[in-house]
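Hi W.,

Here's what went into the run:
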Amino acid sequence: MDERAREHAEVLVGWSARIEAGDDVIVDVAEDAHDLGVAVAEELGAVGANIVSTYGSDELSRAYLKAHDGAFEAGDHALALLENADAYLRLGGGRNTTATADVESETRQAYSKAHSEVREARMDTDWVSTVHPTRSLAQQAGMAYDEYQDFVYDAVLRDWGMLSERMANVKERLDEGSEVRIVTERDDHPRTDVTMSVEGRTAVNSAASVAYDSHNLPSGEVFTAPYDTEGEVFFDVPMTINAKRVRNVRLTFDDGEVVGFAAEQGEDALETVLNTDEGARRLGELGLGMNRGIDRVTDNILFDEKMGDTVHLAVGRAYDANLPEGEEGNQSAVHVDLITDVSEESFIEIDGDVIQRDGTFWFEDDFEA
Amino acid sequence: MDERAREHAEVLVGWSARIEAGDDVIVDVAEDAHDLGVAVAEELGAVGANIVSTYGSDELSRAYLKAHDGAFEAGDHALALLENADAYLRLGGGRNTTATADVESETRQAYSKAHSEVREARMDTDWVSTVHPTRSLAQQAGMAYDEYQDFVYDAVLRDWGMLSERMANVKERLDEGSEVRIVTERDDHPRTDVTMSVEGRTAVNSAASVAYDSHNLPSGEVFTAPYDTEGEVFFDVPMTINAKRVRNVRLTFDDGEVVGFAAEQGEDALETVLNTDEGARRLGELGLGMNRGIDRVTDNILFDEKMGDTVHLAVGRAYDANLPEGEEGNQSAVHVDLITDVSEESFIEIDGDVIQRDGTFWFEDDFEA
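Here's what came out:
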């Protein structure tokens, strides 16, 4: 086994999920995540936790879903398992990222609806989602297998304590501030100049640990729920939206709403998203990617949106964690992230103060206001 | 996928476990049993059952057990999962049959003891244990992979309805009878001539279905709990006992107890078993193997003891299913099967009537009393 899989397991069990002796833990092992599964089992044994391992196979799911005819129901056993668990560790990494491509979306939705109680029970645990580097994910990323392993471990095996301290600075400024402005002015791109309010909203320091309300490993972003967006944004990082490749998206906001849009590729997929419901034309999230272990796009949102020196804006649903108790943020059936590179020819301001210029934050040595 | 895996899944779900719409089913998928897992998921979807798939990985178990230090406990989540399940389908077929060889037996026992409640909950479901033909099991059997697949499917894809009717004949004779005598007289072997009482005991028609109190697929044996054994038995089918190969065992019984023993190979392993406790020197089981799809020894007790035209005797614990309500059968910490070939130069009598000669039963066309 790659020694880094053991380190991955240590980070997952110790830093991310904060597992303690006697905790009842579910480890969900995808088809090709066996090595990480073994490493996590070893770590859970060392900690003295109790383990149930489930098999997270997309191919089993596809077979079940396609053969099933009639109304779905969640089993009592599925619900009982989750309701009695303290933590749920999802080890992604299947054999084929498109293994369920031929399952009808109505079937998925019916299954998903029948399992909402199970899903809520899972969200009530200290859940963490991570991936084992597999050949299938390497292929999705357009990378060689060895190269992709290096990429994943660079992203996962960070000094999370130090990164969380750096991110705390950004969270503090976002929490205190009222208006965020993002500007990019590259010669080869349309200009981005957009402002949005964050007044009264609480940013999340997403440091890949349940202790920070952060449930992805890797993570490394600070995000909040903006509103009253105005201006133009150009998203130069390619994305996959509903299985369609989308490139070079341009959005125009007026009075908080998308009033114009264009994309060089996949514009129809973008249009479908924006037409989902009223909230799909408003922002649900502003996120600053701060994980510099992630230095390239791999067509996997778990990694892409955390990439260092990027900013992402999501149209659609806002997260409760960003909202004051009792306040409703933007509502929508969708939440679709779009990413823009701010590593050069760019700056981010909060209430007129530049907090990042050309990918360097104000608390970093080579920052120039 | 091998079409026979789908047929295997149909037999497992339909004939063996008798799964119905709405049943809460656990499918435990071993490391290399993925294809059978997919076929079973498809079958469960078609039936309309609810599925939780667990990952039955010996390598995960080993990692957990070896790292764990201190007292084991079963998780509430593990117990809740089993207590809320209607059926448990174990799909064996790992990558290495000796994957847990370096786990201390004290550790196994401590884990097993802590999980007795979980195990009982599992036994309270309609559980069925089967195996997917893997390269690892082919290797254990000393067979090529394709050859082993043919072997497994020949054993599993029987006409179980017809076989259960044939076995019902044998069960009836055993239930009505008092004394069983087994004789083999081959030139190249020591003679077997042994008698035992089955008076008051109930035979099980083990037809690979929970409807027959039979929890293995394949099955195909009729077994009961004998006592008052007298005589000599020569077991010519090789066995593995506690990871040691044992060949050509000879046991001498007097007044129900083993009073003499020998083996050409593995005599020490045999001796350890016989010295376990008082019950380890008495028989707990007499079984007649009737699955003629199994025509060779593969060093896997799930198959070997069901081999057509064999008889097995187990020293140690008797099964409750063979005993009258409230009666205690032979008690022991062990139950070790030993097998003898009765396909030629042999006969089996019940109360003086020959019921099988040279591998042919009285109800078969070419039987000669």
